[in-house]
Amino acid sequence: MDASLWIAKTGLTAQQTRMQVISNNLANVNTTGFKKDRAVFEDLLYQNIVTAGGQTDAESQTPTGLMLGTGTRVVATEKLHGQGNIINTENALDVAVTGDGFLAVQQADGTIAYTRDGSMKMDAQGQLVTAGGQALVPAIQIPENATSVTIGRDGTVTAELANGGGAAQIGQIQLSIFVNNSGLQPVGRNLLKPTEASGAAIVSIPGEGGSGMLMQGSLEASNVNVVEEMVNMIETQRAYEINSKAISAADGMLRFLNNNL
Amino acid sequence: MDRLVFTSLGSITNQTHVRAQITNNLANVSTVGFKQSFAVASQSVDVQGEGFATRTSLETVGQDVINLQPGVTNRTGRAMDIALQDSTVLGVQGNDGDIAFTRRGDLRVSPLGLIENSAGHLILGENGPINVPPGQLLTISPDGSVFGALPGDPAIPPVLLGTLVLRDASEMPLTRRADGLFEPIDEQFRGADFPTGPMPASLVSGSLEGSNVNPIEAMVQLMDFSRSYESQIKMIKEIKGIDENGASMMRVPA
Known about the structure:
Helix content of chain B: 10-25%
Order of helices and strands of chain B: HEEEEEEEEEEEEEEEEEH
Shape of chain B: elongated
Oligomer: heterodimer
Distance between the termini of chain B: 24 Å
Strand content of chain A: 25-35%
Helix content of chain A: 10-25%
Radius of gyration of chain A: 27 Å
Largest interface: A-B, 77 and 67 residues
């Protein structure tokens, strides 16, 4: 059938995918530590109709070829790891990462996942865990007689002990950085997993080796910009309409052909 | 059958190519750095044969020259998004190993620590691919120099990691490769680097260039071709009528 029908169809499919990405961003506008996604478009392979350099006669050649495109596709969705707003919560166990770096958490299956969501809690054993109940790596145990916990900008965790026990350093929060943050695979629940594309985690003390710092009593909000997403949504909607117009134009032509011949 | 019908058919077949190209432009209204081609050129060819020399048929000729007119630039704020200015093109390595050019400016760091674009093409530096050590905060200056700094140590000045291959193509017509990248039309520079033009090659960091397809223009063209198609079909219908009349006139009465 008509090639333009299928070319326009690739446009519709790609815009549909982009719409999904935008909706997901908007749905996560209040998710702590969420990083927005961006749909990456790419033009598909070209069909060679007239080859460049073909002889038009004995003396001359065609200077350029005729390449017909075959449409577009969404080649990837890319997470944009820009800094989200820092929101002050005054909760001693909330930490926000300012700059590059992820907190490592232990998964039930023994693997390690990474997160920017620093809203930590204490579990029944006094261990620092994420909101999802996963223990921080390396583990930090808060003594039972601690009256207050201080987390320094460099990740040192100190506890003030009751009955004049003084301050004691009880652990060190570490940050993991990756060569390619965008290569991390989101697995839901605010967690990301390393892949071949992200490279292996490089663990460091906050503030060293290019990693960011920690901020106690704060959380990092989602970096979704609502206005930007709305504008993207309008653009996507219009692009979708244009492509469906192209389909209906091709459809009209084929109908005319069927009715008249 | 009358030869007239083949003239109409030839015209429809050729216009199909043009419609495919317009639809492809429309499909790529959201592709970063997409450049449409100048319209497909058609030429009339005299058809020799018996009878009067009245038949000219339409033939599509290859003219896939990239239209480097800038697209709309959108501010993204991401340091590794670059929008190339004027007729500047960025040197990348195609999957076949040849040097090719693109207008895509959504750069990222590959797992091997080299700069590539979102389509996975390796970005070339003046001295080979650009290596980025982990944890570096990248800035790209308007002349294409890539600087890396450690965010924790403001005292250490940013280090020059490499320079992007920026070329001004205002006087170098480019054509498209099968993978969508551009290369010079000139045989001499095909698959290779070419000397930059007289305009300064520059970029703006933190922005992305969209597609330069004008949807209104493309829609109007599409309407135009739809109507032209209908006229050709009408023509074929007329010829069919003439032929039928001729056949019925010549029918031997029963």
